[in-house]
Amino acid sequence: MDTDAALAAHRQELRRGTVVVACLTVLREPNYGYALLEALDTAGFEVEANTLYPLLRRLETQGLLTSDWNTDEARPRKFYRTTIEGDAMATTLRADWAALTAAITELDEGDRS
């Protein structure tokens, strides 16, 4: 495997779990899929629509998101929002992420000693 391909594969693995946390965090305020894609992209999360929409359905099935259709506009849009359980999950996962970041930083700094 060449270095570029290996790096791309590892980055994809790293992002896979963080996208869940990012979605649950952003969707504390109702939003529809395309706007969520844009918000994630602006924050630096590269997610394709064919990855995001199945993820949103899975999170909804797990009870972490809820959705409602907005038919007030010419084009109906499905809005998603984090449930109480989803917000609690996001809080826990963000704390876990912070602990992992601290651990990696400690390992990195210890490596320099």
UniProtKB/TrEMBL annotation:
<dbReference type="Pfam" id="PF03551">
    <property type="entry name" value="PadR"/>
</dbReference>
<protein>
    <submittedName>
        <fullName>DNA-binding PadR family transcriptional regulator</fullName>
    </submittedName>
</protein>
<dbReference type="GO" id="GO:0003677">
    <property type="term" value="F:DNA binding"/>
</dbReference>
<dbReference type="InterPro" id="IPR036390">
    <property type="entry name" value="WH_DNA-bd_sf"/>
</dbReference>
<keyword id="KW-0238">DNA-binding</keyword>
<dbReference type="InterPro" id="IPR036388">
    <property type="entry name" value="WH-like_DNA-bd_sf"/>
</dbReference>
<feature type="domain" description="Transcription regulator PadR N-terminal">
    <location>
        <begin position="25"/>
        <end position="88"/>
    </location>
</feature>
<dbReference type="InterPro" id="IPR005149">
    <property type="entry name" value="Tscrpt_reg_PadR_N"/>
</dbReference>
<dbReference type="InterPro" id="IPR052509">
    <property type="entry name" value="Metal_resp_DNA-bind_regulator"/>
</dbReference>
